[in-house]
Amino acid sequence: MPEFFYNNSSVEQLSLELHFSPMIPICYVPWTSLKKLSLSSCKLSDECTATILSCCPILESVTLDSCDQLNVLDLSKSQHLTTLEIDRSLGPTQIVPPYIRYLSLTNFKLPCTLVDVSSLTAAILETSLCLFKNLKSEDILVVLLKMLEKLRDVEKLTFSAKFLQTLSLALALGRCPFPSVKVNDLTLETTLSSVEFPGIEKLLQNSPGVKKLTLHVMEPGTVPLLIPIMNIDYQNLESEHVVSFIKVLLKFTKTLEKVVVRLACYIDGRGFEELLGMVSMLSHEYNVSIVLSSTCRIRGRSLECY
């Protein structure tokens, strides 16, 4: 990249896509005003990343999309950096994020070691079995549980359907002590498939303080099942199926105060009203507030009920 690009001290937001070319900055990058940095399809060495971070004293947010060659991401000197998002990147294998409050790791390759997450308040995790090609089932479970153990004090956690599928299959093939997490706001992205259920069950059983549970029913086809154990006709999703799923989950929680169910566009207006009545009875039975929402629109308005 041309040298003048690195000498811009007034830029506050920067997005770069290098088509997997190496990013090699000069020794000093005077991005002293930079607050938000997004890098896509870059080859990032540890040295290059350290140089960039050291020259961005007020950097607040970093996004890495499809970046590789990075092994250790040390953010210990970036005191203003509170948001880190990594997507589809082969690395890093170690992250030191002492000041990060929001962490998103999607389509990431494990093992990835987290060091010092004392400031973390919210995290999103998404991974898939296909990213564990060189690991045995027992090793996959160990890696996933170590990650959960590191996140045990985080208040708000989100797990993708692919993560839940991977966790479920690993649990079926290996045995390790499951860590207790202190999460109180838990979001589970789900296809309502039984292949995800063992992971969901274990998470709820080991989240004794969870007060809010959000179920985000994913769009058909957006999350391919690792094993097609249960075939669901999402276009004709029945209210009974949704209620049964919620009811089973409620049995694993003791401190739950609120459940939010996001249904996308699986249930039409009539089905939504029917589901609302069934959920109302369930809410009274378990003394839990249940919120239903759907992206379906009738007369220009989205369906939602509290």
Description:
InterPro entries: F-box_plant, LRR_dom_sf. This is (rape) hypothetical protein. By secondary structure, the protein is an alpha/beta fold. The radius of gyration is 22 Å and the shape is elongated. α3 crosses α4. The strands form 2 sheets. The protein has a 12-stranded mixed β-sheet. Strands 4-6-8 form a 3-stranded parallel β-sheet. Mean pLDDT is 83; it is low at 225-236 and 297-306. The relative contact order is 0.07. The chain contains 7 helices and 15 strands. It starts with a helix and ends with a strand. The protein has 2 domains: 1-90 and 101-114; 121-306, no CATH class.
Order the strands across the largest sheet as they lie in space. 1-2-3-5-7-9-10-11-12-13-14-15
Helix tally equals 7
Rg computed from alpha carbons, rounded to a whole number of angstroms: 22 Å
Q: Overall pLDDT, averaged? A: 83
Biggest sheet features: 12 strands, mixed
- What percent of the residues sit in helical stretches (DSSP H or I)? 25-40%
Distance between the termini: 53 Å
| Structure classification | alpha/beta
In N-to-C order, the SSE pattern is: HEEHEEEEEEEHEHEHEHEHEE
Q: Can you tell me the number of structural domains?
A: 2
Poorly predicted ranges (pLDDT <50, ≥5 residues)? 225-236, 297-306
Report the sheet-strand fraction: 25-35%
Count of extended strands: 15
So what's the oligomer here?
single chain
Shape: elongated
